[in-house]
Specification:
Elements lengths: L9 H67 L19 E5 L3 E12 L4 E2 L15 H12 L5 H9 L13 H5 L28 H12 L2 E2 L8 E2 L5 H6 L4 H9 L12 H8 L6 H10 L3 E2 L4 E10 L2 E10 L7 E6 L25
Parallel strand pairs: 3-4, 5-6
Antiparallel strand pairs: 1-2, 2-7, 7-8, 8-9
Helix pairs in contact: 2-5
């Protein structure tokens, strides 16, 4: 006959106590680890938010500084050229340190200021009523498209994207019904362009995709998107490609470009100075007609400027994209601001079919 051990065996009670202590210790360590991890993450998040807020404040300050520089330039003369102080920001802008207090570096920034009227405004194509302008704007854009490697019909696609009707310009163009049939359906804007990146949404049949991206990238370097009011091209800041597209001969383009040479730097200060140098022949009917057309297209001053750049404070990075409007006798205004849009990289080859333009999915 076997006897049962007493229920209050001291050895059993000691083992249960040790096990309970270990379980409690593990729970305490686990809880402490979780608390420390959350606290560390909260500290990092707070530091990131503070860095981002500081970066935004610095971005606003740099934007105001750029605006003051443009305002100062407007008071000093009535023309805009690449030899002026503001234009130095557009020539290989360096990365500069951002310092506080006793020259303590807290970050860095790089800024680029560009005259947007050195490019051709796509919105010049249509007037305020949505009708195609008849001063050769479509022909100017066709020449820029061809120079970039795009088909001439792409200009008709641009017009149909903007105009309010549903009638296509040519058989190669497209309206809303085409874009709704794509793999990613969307509608045509039926209004002026808000941003040049919209061009990547338009119908464009070029193969391979790498060639399409390359051609679009080249086209985007010569065009811009400005408000619907027709804007002129600044002869002091524009490129030879734009000058050629608006109808100038190679000799006259050389006359303009030679004024920008480093050892010359004699920008045109008035439109009278510009057209005197271009020497149009009033006895030649075609030359006189071209001069009349160009007097509505060329100028020597600008109202729209683009500030772009990158600013880093701590772990935070802000990409600056602001468009200034400078009106004579009035304070400069920021009419567009995007502090989160990265600078557009150079076009890169792609191997996918989901590229610049949306096309109907194959069934």
């Amino acid at each position: 006959m076997h006897r049962q051990p007493p229920a209050n065996n001291p050895h059993q009670q000691r083992g249960i106590a040790i096990l309970t202590t270990l379980v409690v210790a593990v729970l305490i360590v686990t809880l402490a680890t979780v608390i420390l991890a959350r606290q560390s993450r909260a500290v990092r998040q707070t530091d990131n938010f503070q860095s981002l807020e500081r970066a935004w404040q610095y971005a606003y300050a740099l934007e105001q500084f750029a605006g003051m520089e443009l305002q100062r330039d407007a008071k000093s003369n009535k023309y805009d050229a690449l030899d002026e102080d503001w234009a130095k920001w557009s020539k290989n802008p360096p990365t500069l340190p951002l310092q506080e207090g006793n020259s303590v570096t807290v970050g860095e920034f790089r800024l680029k200021l560009e005259d947007l009227q050195g490019r051709y405004n796509i919105n010049n194509l249509l007037d305020e009523k949505g009708k195609l302008r008849t001063n050769g704007e479509d022909q100017h854009l066709k020449k820029l498209a061809q120079a970039a490697g795009l088909p001439e019909s792409f200009v008709a696609v641009i017009i149909d994207w903007m105009d309010p009707d549903a009638i296509i310009q040519t058989g190669d163009s497209a309206e809303t019904d085409f874009y709704l049939s794509g793999a990613i359906p969307y509608r045509a804007a039926d209004m002026p362009f808000a941003d040049s990146s919209e061009l990547r949404l338009l119908k464009l049949d070029i193969e391979p995709p790498a060639q399409k991206n390359k051609a679009l990238g080249a086209f985007l370097q010569t065009v811009t998107v400005l408000p619907f009011k027709k804007t002129t091209v600044n002869a002091n800041t524009t490129s030879a490609a734009v000058l050629q597209a608006i109808g100038l001969s190679s000799d006259r383009i050389k006359t303009i470009m030679d004024r920008r040479l480093p050892d010359n730097e004699k920008p045109f200060k008035t439109t009278a100075d510009l057209f005197a140098a271009l020497a149009f022949n009033p006895a030649d009917q075609a030359d006189a007609a071209l001069e009349k057309q160009l007097k509505e297209t060329l100028d020597v001053s600008s109202s729209y400027f683009h500030l772009s750049g990158k600013l880093t404070v701590g772990r935070a990075t802000v990409f600056m994209n602001s468009v200034f409007y400078r009106e004579p006798g009035k304070p400069i205004r920021v009419i567009m601001r995007q502090f989160d849009r990265a600078e557009e990289p150079e076009p890169k080859p792609t191997t996918t079919t989901d590229d610049a333009s949306n096309t109907p999915a194959n069934t």
